[in-house]
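Re: that chain you flagged

S.,

Sorry for the slow reply, it's been a week of failed gels. I finally had a moment to sit down with the sequence you sent. For the record, here it is as I used it:
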Amino acid sequence: MTDVSLEFLENQADEDEGLGHAGIETFRDTPFVSCSREAGQNTLDAAAGRPVHLAMRVHLVPAEKIPGIEKLRETILQCLKAAKASGSDKDRDYFENANDVASRETIPVLEIADYNTTGLEGPPNDKGSKFHALVKSSGKSNKPTETSGGSFGIGKNATFAVSDLRTVFYSTIYDTPDGPQYAVQGKVQLVSHKDADGVERTSKGYWGHSEQFSAVENPELVPDWLRRESKGTSVFSIGLRGREDWIERMTVPLISNFFAAVDDGDIEFEVGDGARVVKSSTLSELLDDPAIEAAADEASHGDDMRLARKLYRCRKSEDSVTKRFSVDGLGEFAAKILVEEGMPKRVAIVRNGMLIAQSLEHFGDKFARFAGARDFVMLVEPADGEASKVLKSLENPQHNAFSAGRLDDPDKHKTVTKAMKQLIHEIRTLIKENAEIAGGDAVKLDELGEFFADAGSEEAKVPSAENDPERFVYKPAKRVRPKPVKPVAAHIEGDDGGAGNRDGAGGAGTDGRGAGSGVGDGGKGNRGQQSVVHLAAVRNVEYSPKTRKVFFTPDEAGDIELTFLATGLFDSTELRVSNATGAAKCAANSGRVELKVDQGARVEIDVTFDDEYTGPVEIYAVRRAS
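Prediction finished late last night. Pasting the structure tokens below so you have them in one place:
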């Protein structure tokens, strides 16, 4: 057969299909992250040896060399006319952009190619083959083992999410008894529509042989840029969504999600024709790369990168404690815990070389509170096929959480829930054994008296020069309620004032009100009686000894100033802030943070201190003068 073309299926049932394709929408919010995660997972699952190699590169392809481009352009125009007629802003915006991309002389194409893999084994047009499952199945996965990465067959839609034209081509070479076999097919996911001849069509279109929409197995019928030269699979997303920093954006999830597989030598990544090479020998350097971390922060995945850095250290450090344990109903697990100052007190679960979850909230534990524990980080991985198989059955389509709600059998649901709670118990026990703070020396009670509500007095019943220690009577002290006063900010000492002249006055202290006089240093200022702004639900997360993310909700609106204090048992010391970002008009000034807030609106800021500090922090907020 030599007749190849792009054709959309006839809509004989008159179904109405819109742009809200569930599979594509699943990955629409984070398309680059999702595409990288799914590609990495699929490559690991198709390994023919180790390490497998995954390359991501962008080609500028002349439009006339894209198979079926004229038909695609015609279909997009028909859909755009219908969108304008319907009044749907979402559809109109999408198809106007798609029409612009499809009309260009050259179109950006993202290629995701794997090597040292089995390829998409065929025959490509037979139901049940890996090629058919990828291209033509819905909600179905055809992975080689029960412990492989995917379960739902939804991940294949991530490549459509990075395409402005929702068009993807699949090209593969796989082994057969008769030698290597070649197969190519294209797929389009738009909306149901009426074509130029007035025929109702579904949202799905296929490029290939028109007879039964079958794949092309003759490489002579395929453009050079679509052809594979060796065994493996290439997936091409046509019309890559425009981002100049796509290399860093796609490198971030490869490092933060697959650091375990990379460290073990199971997989290597190449992004942007060698611009970024992720393998065991470069992993440590990339985890500390400022450009990658900046891209992660911009994409709101900075926390993922920082956690991966800590988990990698946990894997490599000689100070980490390793333990294997068995959980009835799950299988064998291996855990590593590193107790070290500055660690984020987090638990991470890795399966099949990929970071899946940092919480087991669907089983009752978010791993968010660790009262009395020192700083630590923990990595938990299945240590046998049975444990990996069960966890796979509990993964959601995004591969970032576990839930027994995905099991249809009530008995299995009950058994697995019990087993997962036992896993939580084992994790908590390991944390307690290694990170629990041991009791220290006793502190004199009179020094702690101010912290108790009812201070008492001791009197002897028998007067004498010496009280009888066995005959004391305890009497509660009278409690005196303080008179309510208007809240004011703490009086925090200002900076030194300027030195005075021989007979003159010293300069005012920084942020102060006082003045010195005579020869020598100027006087100390104070902050005065400024109105306190109450902050509700204050929380802070430590990133490093110098940096923290701070959350709070102000009771008032306006311009405020934040002061950070290192709190101790007897006194507090101001922590000077060198940098602050994240909120409106947020800036560091004279060691404090100035920003604008709205009443009742949750605020999130990142602060950097001048000096390292890892203890508890108090935050004072006062209204700034207009």
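What I noticed first: DSSP finds 13 helices and 28 strands in the chain.

Talk soon,
D.
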